């Protein structure tokens, strides 16, 4: 059971929009700690996709966006492309655990 | 370009020890915090440990506290993870990850190595 809760899977057709939720608690997202998102494509290492809730590292397209409100965060991908297929993880710091925590991961399938 | 290359993984019996290394290049190593993150085959990511820029501050997941020790050698641009009393549940790919800045508690992980596989089995 992960400290941050994500849906196990989401799917969408090419060109559509999908969102992935990440629900935490008052010791992580609700305490003001930022949400970060990572993309892991099949057979590769994770890659930072969104940091500090809403910011994109250079090279990440603007069709990918993040938001945060209270104890939850969300990742949105518009204009879905086949190469978006992979696993997505949210992350935050947890003050009760004094450490970093990840969500359980969401598998994105492009139909 | 940032490069992080892990090594030291392999097959080890339960109760034994293993030391992982991560060789860094392409940036000023001693300006950044680092982490170890693991992923059991077919499972999600689990943060293992973090260390700040000068090694003075470290943190560990409860699952490894007292058994694993993170360290760094800034002169050698290297990060290490000493793993003692290994258990079968420690079997995973272990990734070295660089933080965006120097403190391990504050910044996301903006570069990752390709990982090294540790298998704990008799």
Explain what you see.
The complex is a heterodimer of chains A (about 110) and B (about 120). Chain A has strands spanning about 10, 20-25, 35-40, 45-50, 65-70, 70-75, 85-95, 100, 105-110. With about 110 residues, chain A is mostly beta strands. In chain A, the strands form 2 sheets. In chain A, strands 1, 3, 4, 7, 8 and 9 form a 6-stranded mixed sheet that branches. A 3-stranded antiparallel sheet of chain A has the order 2-6-5, with no helix packed on it. In chain A, about 40% of the residues are buried. The mean pLDDT of chain A is about 95. Chain B is an all-beta fold and about 120 residues long. Helices cover about 0% and strands about 50% of the residues of chain B. Chain B has strands at about 5, 10, 20-25, 35-40, 45-50, 60, 70-75, 80-85, 90-100, 110, 115-120. In chain B, strand 7 and strand 8 (about 80-85) form a beta hairpin. The relative contact order of chain B is 0.31. The interface of A and B includes residues 38, 40, 46 and 99 of A.
What can be said about this structure in brief?
Chain A is mainly β and 111 residues long. Helix content of chain A is 0%, strand content 44%.
């Amino acid at each position: 059971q992960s400290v941050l809760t994500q849906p196990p899977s989401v799917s969408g057709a090419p060109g559509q929009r999908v969102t992935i939720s990440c629900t935490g608690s008052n010791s992580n997202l609700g305490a003001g700690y930022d949400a970060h998102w990572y993309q892991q494509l099949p057979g590769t290492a994770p890659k930072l996709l969104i940091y500090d809730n809403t910011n994109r590292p250079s090279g990440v397209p603007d069709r990918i966006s993040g938001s945060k409100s209270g104890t939850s965060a969300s990742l949105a991908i518009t204009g879905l492309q086949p190469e978006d297929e992979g696993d997505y993880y949210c992350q935050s710091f947890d003050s009760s655990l004094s450490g970093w925590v990840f969500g359980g991961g969401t598998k994105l399938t492009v139909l | 370009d940032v490069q992080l290359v892990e090594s030291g993984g392999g097959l080890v019996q339960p109760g034994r020890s293993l030391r992982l290394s991560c060789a860094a290049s392409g940036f000023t190593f001693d300006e950044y915090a680092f982490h170890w993150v693991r992923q059991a085959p077919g499972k999600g990511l689990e943060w293992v440990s973090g260390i700040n820029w000068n090694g003075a501050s470290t943190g560990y997941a409860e699952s490894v506290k007292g058994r694993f020790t993170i360290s760094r050698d800034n002169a050698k641009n290297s990060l290490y993870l000493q793993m003692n009393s290994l258990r079968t549940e420690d079997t995973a790919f272990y990734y070295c990850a660089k933080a965006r800045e120097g403190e391990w508690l504050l910044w996301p992980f903006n570069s990752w190595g390709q990982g090294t596989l540790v298998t704990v089995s008799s």
